[in-house]
Amino acid sequence: MQVATSTVESNANMIVKTFRRFNAGIVHFIMSIRLRALGATIIGSFAGLSLTATIIPSAMETLVGVDSYAARWELGGFAVYSMMAWAVGGWAVQRSGNKWLGAIILGFVGLVTGLLFTGVGIGTATNLLLAGGGAALLYGAVGGLIIGDALRSRSFDESDPTAPRGRIGDLGIFKYFIKAEDKK
Asked: Is the pTM of this model over 0.85?
């Protein structure tokens, strides 16, 4: 018995299924990655570089009126130290596994490095310290929320082999890939 089908429709369904299977494979790889601590350390390190290269100079220009190029020039020597401190902070946030604790940890790292680098590199006037420390505190708190949520270790019951293994931080982008059977 022969049944007429449209090859265009079946090819389109096949392409969609292939893309979904490919995307599900990528998401599965990301969700099962075991190098989250290394990723958090690298992200934290580059956040520290961004702090001295962009965040504090922009805050100085916006809030205090200091030329951002001059602020970048003054903070350039602290970039390596900032990267090291923020790398340790990023690692600590990932190990904590809690986004609110992560905000506190990286917020504290941001406050300390912001005050230290602004005070030593730019000046010790109160408005300079408030601008540099406040911007770094805010930047660290938001970064801690993101790293603590997205890169935390998955929590699951080791003794139960059928327990759900969790997702990376319940991010909305991954909700598309949850099958109906998994929601039950």
From this structure: no
